[in-house]
Amino acid sequence: MRHTVILCLAGTLALSACGSRNGDAEVQRAMQDINSIEGSNLNDVMMTVGDPDEAVKYFTGALANDPGRVDLQRGLAKSLIRGSRATEAVAAWQTVVANPSSTLDDRVDLADAQIRSNQWDNAAATLNTIPPTHETYNRYKLEAMIADSKQQWAKSDSFYQTAVGLTTTPASTLNNWGYSKLTRGDYPGAERLFIDALRQDSTLFTAKNNLVMARGAQRKYDLPVIPMNQTERAQLLYTMALTAIKQNDVSTGKGLLRDAIDTHPQHFEEAARSLRALEEA
After folding, report:
1. Where exactly are the structural domains of the chain?
2. Cβ distance 175 to 210 under 8 Å?
3. Helix and strand counts by DSSP (H, E) for the chain
4. CA 117/CA 160 separation, integer angstroms
5. Looking at domain 49-134, what is its CATH homologous superfamily?
6. Of 52, 103, 216, 246, whose CB count within 10 A is highest?
7. pLDDT (0 to 100) of residue 23
8. How far apart, in whole angstroms, are the C-alpha atoms of residue 112 and residue 102?
9. If we measure between CA atoms, which residue out of 147, 226, 163, 152 comes closest to residue 191?
């Protein structure tokens, strides 16, 4: 009987030891998973909402310890873009693209960085390495911009149309498309696109300003019916005034400058200076 008890105790101790070892291993695996998740979350935060310069330092340090990780390389490249360091970002994206784990989207992002650093021919060459079956919003947006730079208007319109259809937030692309129409003198077409952009995002001031320029180019010197606060109204009147003056409608321009000065909730130095220069002349 005593031997039986000893054997049972020995077995219990052995099971306890095995359970302890298994438990330690499970804890270690769990901790590794947690560290991996936390690291991934931190990477995402740094890429999107962290201070760009701090993000660059973070990813540079992380890459010093693990230089082959494509997610860290990608994080550095995106952080450089967020920090308006486009030339450095080009080199960073080239490193990403050279990584065997890179994707076609990484090539698109390289082209984006090249455009931001005014390397238009390189950007076009990069996009040409991407198969036509890779149909994404960012890809077609960049294709449209490159077509614009070459004044290939038919291609530009086609690419913009495709890009708009591939996103649920097309306001900025509609604004870019409208500006393309504006630069080529299609003022009614530009006006329609700026209005479409504001239907999608009524807060987009750039589209409001561009809309006023498109209307002014057609000698429509009344503000469009769009949402605007008092400061925006004053700034749009100022843009309208400059457009009128540029077209030698000086009297109309003076009146619009006075309206802008009266409308602005604070002192509107730019408008006041322009009005003084006209009156002195």
Report:
1. 49-134
2. yes
3. 14, 0
4. 22
5. Tetratricopeptide repeat domain (1.25.40.10)
6. 216
7. 52
8. 16
9. 226
Would you tell me how many other CB atoms lie within 10 Å of the CB of residue 42?
A: 14
What is the chain's Cα-based Rg? 29
Burial group, residue 212, by CB count within 10 angstroms (0-12, 13-18, 19+): buried
E strand or H helix at 62, and its extent? helix 52-65
CA 117 – CA 141 distance, rounded (Å): 17
Closest CA to 239 of 276, 197, 277, 268: 268
**pLDDT value at residue 47:** 61
271-279: long-range contacts, CB 8 A cutoff, minimum separation 24? 271/234, 271/237, 271/238, 271/241, 274/238, 274/241, 274/242, 274/245, 278/245, 278/250, 278/253, 278/254, 279/254
d(CA 61, CA 212): 48
In the DSSP assignment, the letter for residue 219 is T
Q: Does residue 73 contact residue 99 with C-beta atoms inside 8 Å?
A: yes
Which residue ranges of the chain lie beneath pLDDT 70? 1-50
Q: Express each pLDDT in 246-260 by its tens digit.
A: 999 999 999 999 999
